[in-house]
Amino acid sequence: MPELPEVEITRRGIEPFLVGQTLTGAIVRHRGLRWPVRRTLAAALRGERVRAVRRRGKYLIIECERGSLILHLGMSGSLRILPASEPPGPYDHFDLCIGEKVLRLRDPRRFGAVIWWQGDANAHPLLAGLGIEPLTEAFDGDALYKAARGRRVSIKQLLMDARLIAGVGNIYASECLFRAGIRPATPAGKVSRARCARLATALRDTLNDALAAGGSTLRDFVHTDGGSGYFQQRYFVYDRAGEPCRVCGRAIRSVVQGQRTTYYCAVCQR
């Protein structure tokens, strides 16, 4: 699933094409996404002027004058800016039309979302309950320590709880825990203030490094121009079970936590 870096890279890619433009409509080829796409979407979008393109967690928000289009890439989705004349593929379920170009959603598994919301997008039920953004000044070791107090859930699962920290998924939770030297199964409530400070820094550094590398291209994710990210070439642990640790040489281990596979080094992470 595209996580915060991939969604932010997508936002940066589509922003120059959208802001200030007037939408000429939409084409919905398959309404059966994670939530059914409303039948009146094309009419609602036609004539709307785009004021801004924002990200909240893993959601993209295209702010217009009378509402916002909320997009989610689901498990395998991607967005591309294409000529309107480009024939759609079998998984191209939605086009946002901007004159001679379209913003096209490709979503093979159909777990993505296309939602028109009139009013403040932050008040939408999908966004209202999201936690702190990890790349903002508000997120630091103290904030993480406070969120972890009294919690028996593992520290890795806490990092992935969008109600506490927005946008962190399996890849970057595993990677930042390695950088911080913390075992993923450690109960969150037992992580000290000092280790929380180290983990908060590791999470920010990991996300920023991923942004600089263009994100992670795994399976279906591509940039808006069709290009790939390269952060997967720098993984310390994710998807490297059985391979030697880049630091100590011991084999990377894997374990299932909360129905997701976690990767870690038993030597470097305590």
Q: Describe it for me?
A:
The mean pLDDT is 93. The protein is elongated. The protein starts with a helix and ends in a 6-residue tail after the last strand. It has a 4-stranded antiparallel β-sheet with strand order 1-6-7-5. The chain has a 4-stranded antiparallel β-sheet with strand order 2-3-4-8. A two-stranded antiparallel sheet has the order 9-10. The chain has 2 domains: 125 residues, MutM-like, N-terminal (N-terminal domain of MutM-like DNA repair proteins), CATH 3.20.190; 124 residues, Helicase, Ruva Protein, domain 3. The chain is of the alpha+beta class and 270 residues long. 40% of the residues are buried.
Query: Count of helical segments?
Result: 7
Biggest sheet descriptor: 4 strands, antiparallel
CATH architecture of the largest domain: Alpha-Beta Barrel
Q: Would you count the extended β strands for me?
A: 10
User: Low-confidence stretches at least 5 residues in length (pLDDT < 50)?
Assistant: none
| Structural shape | elongated
Main structural class: alpha+beta
Rounded radius of gyration (Å): 20 Å
Order of helices and strands: HEHEEEEEEEHHHHHEE
Helical proportion? Answer: 25-40%
Taken as a percent bin, the fraction of beta residues is: 15-25%
Superfamily (CATH H level) name of the largest domain:
MutM-like, N-terminal
Distance between the termini: 27 Å
How do the strands of the widest beta sheet line up side by side? 1-6-7-5
**Count of domains:** 2
CATH topology of the largest domain: N-terminal domain of MutM-like DNA repair proteins
Q: Calculate the mean pLDDT score and round it.
A: 93
Q: What's the CATH first level of the largest domain?
A: Alpha Beta
